[in-house]
């Protein structure tokens, strides 16, 4: 090869070219896949698997080899997704109008955590702390990969009961999952020291961290909303059209919540709801949402490409029949049954209930919980490796199963309700505060 065309190229140049290709895919692929029974995550995983199978890559992206990076990267993706999810919810917060959310959070998630924990102990033969961590990690619906079953951008009218339920569940379920992640950490520590863990868990991990996240998120969100929409007209930040303010609110809320030792995930979603409530009909809500969505999609695609590389680099090497059986039960039995139990008495058609129960998508959030739990646990030895194996199978199966079914299922649901699934997403008329349809 002549010296004017050095090969292989400099790794930095390869990175720049790859980043450009990734950003182009972020813009193009969703349009190309809109009508196909194929999701963007499936394509990203395939790209990662091909890259690490056919090219000489400088590292193997196994999560167990880079647990701190996995924790921080997945943390970043999730908080950006939570801000976007909160901003696009048109429905005004109300205990009765959000009843589908409470049903998916309360009975459904608690039953899911309990069932997976039992399977972890008796099927996988894990110690109780690791089984609890597995249950807490696999129970929440992922706010990142569930984008195809979530509501549309602000003021677009794409907020039926199914999409609203799955979006609000994905936004708030971290406040219920994280206490059980902390419970697993406390149980592991207690097994080593014999110290009492119940009081610390109830008063700190459940009460303080949940209430603190809600209060801080509400306060910060209202301050951002007031500064953005209600300071004197000549200096209103909303007039700048700079959606990056949503990322600023995300980082500040998460940082302050974590400094106060309360749940930052919960705080970010609540802050997004508070910002949206400050001026529900303003066009700037759409601009903030769109900016966060673009950042989220770039980070999500990068993460899924790494996940595809991990799959062919040995992530599933320790998988046996027990892990496969648990994965099938989680996706096809536990979540659907727990979802239907939680929706008993809820006024909705059966196809809506089945869709809500079935699309409990697992993804980036589960990687965060496993990484966080294992990074803060003591005395688990090499048994934590099995959690990464199980997580790899569950997330892969979830992406394939839900990714191949989401387009036809949601299209049929729209058609049965008289909606055009191919209609362009445009901002509809501004809705006054509180103007939302009742549950079906």
Give Rg in angstroms: 22 Å
Shape: globular
Overall average pLDDT: 84
Count of alpha and pi helical runs: 15
* Low-confidence segments: 425-440
Give helix % range: 55-70%
Question: Cα distance, first to last residue?
Answer: 67 Å
- Compute the number of structural domains: 1
CATH architecture descriptor name:
Up-down Bundle
Largest sheet: none
Output the helix-strand order. HHHHHHHHHHHHHHH
| CATH fold category name | Na+/H+ antiporter like fold
Q: Approximately what portion of the residues adopt beta-strand conformation?
A: under 5%
How many DSSP-defined strands?
0
CATH class: Mainly Alpha
Give the helix/strand class: mainly alpha
Would you mind describing this structure in some detail?
- The protein has a single domain (63-416), classed as Na+/H+ antiporter like fold (Up-down Bundle), CATH 1.20.1530.
- The chain contains 15 helices and no strands.
- It has helices at 11-32, 40-54, 67-87, 99-122, 128-138, 161-172, 174-193, 198-229, 245-259, 264-278, 284-315, 321-342, 350-358, 364-376, 384-416.
- The model is unreliable at 425-440 (pLDDT under 50).
């Amino acid at each position: 090869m002549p010296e004017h065309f050095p090969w292989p190229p400099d790794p930095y140049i390869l990175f720049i070219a790859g980043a450009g290709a990734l950003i182009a895919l972020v813009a193009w692929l969703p349009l190309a896949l809109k009508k196909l029974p194929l999701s963007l995550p499936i394509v990203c995983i395939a790209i990662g698997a091909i890259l690490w199978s056919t090219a000489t890559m400088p590292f193997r992206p196994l999560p167990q080899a880079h647990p701190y990076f996995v924790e921080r990267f997945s943390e970043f993706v999730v908080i950006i997704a939570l801000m976007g999810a909160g901003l696009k919810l048109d429905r005004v917060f109300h205990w009765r109008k959000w009843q589908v959310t409470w049903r998916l959070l309360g009975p459904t998630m608690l039953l899911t955590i309990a069932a997976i924990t039992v399977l972890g102990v008796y099927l996988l033969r894990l110690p109780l702390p690791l089984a609890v961590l597995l249950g807490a990690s696999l129970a929440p619906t992922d706010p990142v990969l569930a984008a195809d079953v979530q509501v549309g951008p602000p003021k677009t009218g794409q907020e039926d009961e199914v999409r609203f339920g799955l979006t609000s569940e994905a936004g708030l379920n971290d406040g219920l999952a994280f206490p059980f992640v902390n419970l697993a950490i406390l149980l592991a520590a207690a097994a080593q020291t014999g110290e009492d863990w119940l009081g610390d868990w109830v008063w700190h991990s459940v009460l303080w961290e949940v209430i603190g996240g809600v209060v801080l998120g509400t306060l910060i969100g209202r301050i951002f909303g007031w500064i953005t929409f209600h300071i004197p007209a000549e200096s209103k930040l909303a007039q700048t059209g700079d959606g990056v303010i949503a990322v600023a609110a995300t980082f500040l809320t998460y940082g302050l919540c974590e400094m106060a030792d309360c749940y930052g995930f919960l705080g970010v979603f609540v802050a997004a709801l508070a910002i949206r409530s400050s001026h529900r009909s303003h066009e700037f809500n759409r601009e903030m949402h769109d900016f966060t969505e673009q950042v989220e999609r770039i980070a999500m695609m990068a993460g899924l490409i790494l996940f595809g590389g991990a799959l062919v680099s040995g992530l599933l090497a320790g998988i046996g029949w027990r892990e496969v059986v648990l994965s099938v039960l989680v996706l096809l039995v536990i979540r659907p049954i727990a979802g239907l139990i939680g929706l008993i008495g809820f006024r909705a058609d059966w196809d809506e209930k089945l869709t809500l129960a079935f699309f409990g998508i697992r993804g980036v959030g589960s990687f965060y919980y496993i990484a966080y739990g294992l990074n803060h646990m003591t005395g688990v030895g090499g048994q934590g490796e099995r959690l990464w194996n199980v997580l790899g199978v569950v997330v892969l199966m979830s992406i394939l199963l839900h990714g191949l079914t989401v387009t036809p299922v949601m299209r049929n649901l729209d058609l049965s309700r008289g909606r055009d699934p191919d209609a362009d997403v445009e901002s509809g008329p501004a809705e006054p505060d509180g103007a939302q349809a009742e549950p079906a």
